[in-house]
Request: fold
Amino acid sequence: MTDEDPLIHPHTLLTAPDGQQVNIDVAMVPVIKALWEMGMTTTACCQNVGEATAAVRDRKGVEGGYRGEDFIAYHMDWALVKMPRVDAVRLIDLLTRVPTFKEFIQQRWTATSWRMNVPLIHEEGKITLAEDALLHFPSEQIPALAQVLAGINREETY
Reply:
């Protein structure tokens, strides 16, 4: 969701490592805090992208584009963490060392598979990659992800 979009999910105000006050969806709080403890930067998150997009569309009365029915259906029950590409790759690398998450990351196009999108940017006749990657994963994995990240922060072996 963009900065101008209304807050949809229950959220809490946290202080990011850079001192900025940010609203974080309640379900995502332990994940985001753990990522920050690992020295990773996050720029956005959502506990259910499809649900949030549908609610934003309904509140703003806007249809089509990324707020269309197909987009909403595709992202229903999928969480999102937006972060710099380098941190996203580092996170994925760490998670491939955890048996359950290794399966989610390495098996493509299953109901539990993770996706990473890096938007293309077209400026001044050049195509580049966005600095941030979008990590999408099933919302039902949020508690397990929070637990695994907390374990990594405690240096547990998986």
User: Anything to note?
Assistant: The mean pLDDT is 89. Residues 49-60 form the longest helix (12 residues).
